[in-house]
Design brief:
Length: 531
């Protein structure tokens, strides 16, 4: 095969216009591109769909040598390289999926300077073979894509990324550009620290995604709620439904298919052929719904994903933002819908408590979950709260495109019910030395004569039956909101309720707790709520 001749480019704008076919740079692209062409390091925080790729692809074309792109998305490298080749860019990749002959060819092209861009997997860069190879060619720049994978607390941590600090030591004169769609200051600092990007200029784009409508509803009957959402608002649309477990993925994919909505499953338990087939069908066919664990989605460039639905609570706001960010890359109206209930909190806490991480890890995971809960329970604009989490300001106090702004939730003073609930937990513990989950505590407040109430003689408690003014669903809301505010915690395998340091603030009447009124979710009429 004769190597393709290089496309001569005279400037960044020339490359943008003639190779990529775009009239103008978007947002901060021009500044970033020029900075890297001049040899500067850069740390780029830009939301999904913001146009990160051009930020390193154009400098790679303009600077002499080959742009080396480190990406964890091995499954997508072939697609990325094919897309670039169609444009006439000389691109290649090196990863574990190739045989010896394919690798040898790419390596030869690299050494001969016949490539503009070379994609490599992070684990490859750690090997002496690849490092020696890179020494034999001229490197235009290093682009570290999905740079948040270096963050150890993050949801996408890849140990191989830690070794990338070596780039700076081994090739000190090659500019580096790290890119991510994760935006917290903490993650940014961790990326800069671990990759030794001390001199890098930081570019932070707005993380607002105005075309995404954020909605969070109480989980009653998730299957039916999901089906109603898809039928009423997204008939024939492509979308992603995220579930926490593989079993739940399989169950919901089957359920949607049985109800006339073409759906495919995706999770790490499926063999790699099935995963690849389902992924490529989702990308290429219209109107397919991918039901998946969070194993699916990073780097997926499908512009017309019209909705992202979460049937389980994400573990962090970062995760939620990343996952919902896969909707509406084309800028058209899209929905981010999440159904969550008390059981989610119990389950995630259990996962954190039972995890292998040390105390610091668990504390951190707990904090991430708390922030996610706070987003769920907020009575104000979801977008505002989301952006505030990323230390960014919302364009206005009311975005007009989230459930809080579209149908402002009624808030009510839940201080007294909160006190009743906390005293129930307190009394069970003090007077009986017992811990129970939300269900039993609520039964006590409602004065229910269940078997379990009789067994433990809970009728004798002074709090028995003092909460009949609220419905069970409302009590569950009170528990959720106390958990979200850190006034109550769940622990152990059975999700027992325990008081926290902050519980006393509520018990002593030092805080007023305004709560989100439990309204039946927009389109789910009737049915009893157990969320
Ligand atoms: P990210 O990696 O930040 O998620 P991409 O680099 O994949 O985003 O870009 C998202 C989409 O926007 C792509 O389809 C890309 O071709 C397009 N795009 C990027 N920059 C521009 C631009 N300056 N003008 C028009 N379209 C652009
Ligand atoms: Zn809003």
């Amino acid at each position: 095969m004769t190597p393709a001749p290089p496309i001569p480019v005279s400037s960044a704008t020339d490359a943008l216009n003639r190779i990529f076919g775009y009239p103008e740079f978007r947002g901060q692209q021009r500044e970033i591109v020029e900075h890297v062409i001049d040899g500067g390091d850069a740390l780029v925080l830009m939301p999904t769909g913001g146009g990160k790729s051009l930020c390193y692809q154009i400098p790679a074309l303009v600077r002499p040598g080959v742009g080396v792109v480190i990406s964890p998305l091995i499954a997508l490298m072939q697609d990325q390289v094919d897309a670039l080749r169609t444009l006439g860019v000389r691109a290649g990749f090196l990863n574990s999926s190739q045989d010896f002959e394919e690798r040898r060819l790419v390596e030869a092209e690299f050494v001969a300077g016949e490539l503009d861009l070379l994609y490599v997997a992070p684990e490859g860069l750690g090997t002496a073979g690849v490092q020696r190879l890179l020494d034999r060619g001229k490197i235009a720049l290093f682009a570290i894509d999905e740079a948040h994978c270096v963050a150890q607390w993050g949801h996408d941590f890849r140990p191989d990324y830690l070794a990338l600090s070596m780039l700076h030591e081994r090739w000190p004169d090659v500019p580096r550009i790290a890119l991510t769609a994760t935006a917290t200051t903490a993650t940014k600092d961790e990326i800069a620290g671990r990759l030794q990007l001390t001199e890098a200029r930081h570019f932070t784009a707005s993380f607002d995604r105005p075309n995404i409508q954020y909605r969070i509803v109480a989980k009653n009957e998730p299957k039916r709620q999901l089906l109603e959402l898809l039928r009423a608002e997204h008939a024939g649309d492509a979308g992603i439904v995220y579930c926490l477990s593989r079993a739940s993925v399989d169950k919901h994919a089957a359920y949607l298919s049985a109800n006339g909505i073409p759906a495919l499953p995706y999770h790490a338990g499926l063999d790699s052929r099935t995963r690849a087939t389902n992924q490529s069908r989702f990308l290429r066919e219209d109107g397919l719904v991918m039901v998946a664990t969070i194993a699916f989605g990073m780097g997926i460039d499908k512009p017309d994903v019209r909705f992202v639905a979460h049937l389980d609570l994400p573990k962090s706001v970062e995760g939620y933002y990343q996952e919902t960010g896969r909707a509406g890359r084309d800028g058209l109206p899209s929905t981010a819908w999440l159904a969550y209930g008390l059981q989610d909190v119990v389950q995630l806490r259990k996962m954190i408590d039972g995890s292998e991480g040390d105390v610091a890890f668990r504390r951190n995971a707990g904090r991430h979950l708390d922030a996610m809960l706070a987003l769920c329970e907020t009575v104000s604009c979801r977008r505002g709260q989301l952006l505030a989490y990323f230390d960014q300001e919302a364009p206005s106090a009311s975005c007009g495109n989230c459930d809080s702004c579209l149908t402002p939730p009624e808030s009510w003073d839940g201080t007294v019910p909160a006190q009743k609930l906390l005293s129930t937990v307190l009394r069970l513990q003090r007077e009986r030395g017992q811990k129970f989950g939300a269900g039993q505590s609520i039964d006590i407040l409602l004065g229910k004569h269940t078997e379990k109430v009789a067994q433990f003689r809970h009728e004798d408690l002074t709090v028995f039956g003092i909460g009949t003014d609220l419905r069970e669903a409302e009590w569950r809301g009170v528990v959720r909101q106390l958990l979200a505010g850190g006034y109550l915690a769940v622990e152990g395998e059975y999700g027992t309720l325990v008081l926290t340091e902050r519980s006393s603030e509520v018990l002593r009447g030092e805080v007023t707790l305004m709560m989100r009124r439990e309204i039946p979710s927009q389109r789910s009429r009737g049915g009893s709520s157990s969320g």
